[in-house]
Design brief:
The protein has about 625 residues and is α+β, with helices and mostly antiparallel strands. Helix content is about 35%, strand content about 25%. It has three domains: about 130 residues, OB fold (Dihydrolipoamide Acetyltransferase, E2P) (Beta Barrel); about 325 residues, 2-Layer Sandwich (BirA Bifunctional Protein, domain 2); about 140 residues, Bit1.
Length: about 625
């Protein structure tokens, strides 16, 4: 059996043969007149009228010998059989097809329609064209794509050969179309809100951070589908809004969690959380019926019927019922003891997160569908307190098959209360809780202009994956994958930073320290790499210590500004990250003056005091091997 490389080499030769004959193997246009499902649907008329048409698709099979070849085409709408006969097509075209066409190529054929003796609908070709020459062979049916990782890496082949994967693509489109349709039918206006935010909020999650070069500004990728922005639209007098969009959370992966996914959020003025959960129940039923044609599902071993009545479950009472602990009366230590008794792993060191861990342990026993209500104020910083009990909020979660698949609440519209809750969240962030929410002063200011009573909801594609009864990764079309090299073919090389000081610049000791400090700070601020193994570490007595970067930093010397520039030039040529420090930078801290002074000089007139190079140890060492260590 030939290797894939050998097959590719053979196909490259066929590609060159096509070109040598003046045939473009990748033309921009096709003569196709019928999709294959149309050819099948209208076959009787096409055959009766002896119509001559062009059809096209990927060659999925080639069989026959001598002067007859049967092929099967697939264009994504269906399959259809083609027949090439030497005496009809002509010897030259027939032989050329034999020479250059392989399974996997895209071709178009022209001819008339007939039925074979076996009753197969067929087009007998009178002409053919190459549309796209494939260079790699398709897997034989499902052979070669059984491996879980390979299926995701080559998802296009998985979808091509696996009807179930193709059905996921189709049903997911139906799912979000139905979500959009239901909101529009109920008077909601679809809006778009920013993905890049200076502060990010609307959920308890760790955000991704990036840098906006044009504004020279660190920004976050949003962790909610515009929650705070949509509430500002409530202030602006738009009473019903929704958004379906991508959100990003830099946290762990599981069968229910991914780092980037699609979510729907909606906000409704003059409504409360009860109005919203009744609306969302109807939405789920509508979407399920439109997407799957049923309201009955088997999910994670639970039989779930969305048509049944959804009971209300009290948060505190359910935990006490299952675990015999009252979270309103228990202190943090008692909750920690209970979690240890249950064998539940937890990392948080605040009561809100510990209570949440208790609830997550309880919810896995609830098949649902059910509606969780009366959630504690301590776990719900953006929701309105209940008028009957100020310690709980008007918030709900939908529980299906032991998990949360949607939530909503009566939105907090008291600006003073909201600011206080933000401050409480900031204290949690300062204590090391990276998922606690940031204070958004712009949002608080908007609330001060007045926001009407408002209810909001949010749910993600987790609901779709649950209704499919599949891990969420299986229901993403192209899930993020680590490069193969990083996983299998390479041992990760150590990265190092080397600061190089100009020993010929006559620097005082404090100036040398200042140079290295500024180089390190500039590199750290500019770098998009994850420099930390962990953000912080804990002492025996539970105190947080911020961790240093995981990469070694060396200090060496070069004897002149020219030598430093030459190293900088080479480092950039190697694709390494660098930071510069010049005489102007040490003489003033005013960046505007530094820029003005630098613009008046050419590169050769700049006095480079230092350079930092960061990258793979082998490359950095090779560049700096002739430099002396600083002493």
């Amino acid at each position: 059996m030939s290797s894939i490389d050998e097959i590719r080499d053979t196909r490259i030769k066929k590609l060159e043969l096509l070109k040598s004959k003046g045939v473009n193997p990748y033309p921009a246009e096709s003569s196709r007149e019928l999709a294959l499902h149309e050819a099948t649907l209208n076959f009787d008329t096409l055959e009766k009228n002896k119509e001559i048409k062009w059809i096209a698709g990927r060659v999925m099979s080639i069989r026959g010998q001598g002067a007859i070849i049967f092929i099967t085409l697939n264009d994504g709408t269906g399959t259809f059989q083609g027949l090439l006969k030497k005496d009809v097509l002509g010897g030259e075209k027939f032989n050329f097809f034999n020479e250059v066409v392989d399974i996997g190529d895209f071709v178009e054929i022209q001819g008339n329609f007939f039925t074979t003796k076996r009753g197969e609908k067929t087009l007998e070709a009178t002409d053919w064209h190459m549309l796209s020459k494939s260079l790699k062979p398709l897997p034989e049916k499902w052979h070669g794509l059984q491996d879980y990782e390979t299926r995701f890496r080559q998802r296009y082949l998985d979808i091509l050969f696996n009807p179930e994967a193709k059905e996921i693509v189709r049903k997911k489109a139906l799912f979000w179309n139905a979500v959009r349709e239901f909101h529009l039918k109920n008077g909601f206006l679809e809006v778009e809100t920013p993905v890049l935010e200076i502060t990010t909020g609307g959920a308890d999650a760790t955000p991704f951070k990036t840098h906006h070069n044009a504004l020279d500004l660190d920004v976050y990728l949003r962790i909610s589908a515009g929650e705070l922005w949509q509430k500002k639209l409530m202030v602006a007098g738009i009473p019903k809004t929704f958004e379906i969009g991508r959100i990003f959370r830099n946290e762990g992966m599981s069968p229910e969690h991914l780092q980037d996914y699609t979510q729907c959020e909606a906000y409704w003025a003059y409504a409360n959380y009860e109005d919203m959960y009744k609306f969302l129940q109807k939405c789920y039923r509508y979407v399920a019926q439109e997407t799957f044609g049923t309201l009955k599902f088997k999910i994670n071993g639970f039989d779930v019927d969305l048509a049944l009545e959804w009971p209300l479950i009290d948060y505190t009472k359910e935990i006490e019922k299952q675990l015999k602990i009252n979270i309103e009366k228990a202190d943090q230590k008692e909750i920690e003891i209970k979690l240890k008794e249950l064998g539940v792993d937890y990392e948080a060191d605040n009561k809100a997160r510990l209570i949440d861990s208790l609830w997550k342990h309880c919810r896995k026993n609830i098949g649902g569908p059910a509606i969780l209500v009366n959630e504690p104020k301590i776990t719900s910083p953006l929701s309105k307190s209940s008028p009957d009990n100020p310690d709980v909020t008007e918030r709900f979660h939908f529980i299906i098959a032991g998990s949360e698949v949607g939530q909503g609440y009566s939105e907090l519209n008291d600006p003073i209360d909201q600011l206080e809750r933000f401050r409480d969240q900031e204290k949690l962030r300062e204590a090391g809780d990276t998922e606690a929410q940031m204070t958004d002063h712009d949002f608080v200011e908007a609330l001060e202009y007045g926001m009407p009573p408002t209810a909001g909801h949010g749910f993600s594609e987790r609901l779709f994956s649950f209704l499919m009864d599949k891990p969420i990764r299986e229901t993403q079309i192209f899930p993020l994958m680590k490069p193969i090299d990083d996983e299998k073919n390479k041992i990760k090389e150590m990265y190092v930073a080397t600061a190089i000081v100009n020993s010929g610049a006559g620097l005082e000791p404090w100036q040398i320290m200042n140079t290295v400090a500024h180089l390190s700070a500039a590199f750290g601020a500019r770098s998009q790499k994850k420099l930390f193994k962990f953000d912080s570490i804990k002492t025996k007595d539970d105190k947080n210590i911020k961790l240093n970067i995981q990469h070694a930093i060396m200090i060496k010397t070069a004897d002149s500004s020219d030598a430093i520039w030459a190293l900088s030039d080479k480092a950039q040529g190697e694709g390494l990250e660098i930071a510069h420090f010049t005489r102007e930078m040490i003489e003033t801290t005013n960046d505007k003056k530094v820029a003005e002074q630098t613009q008046m000089k050419s590169q050769k007139d700049i006095d480079f005091l230092g350079l930092l190079i960061f990258g793979p140890k082998s490359k950095v060492d090779a560049l700096t091997k002739d430099l002396k260590l600083f002493s």
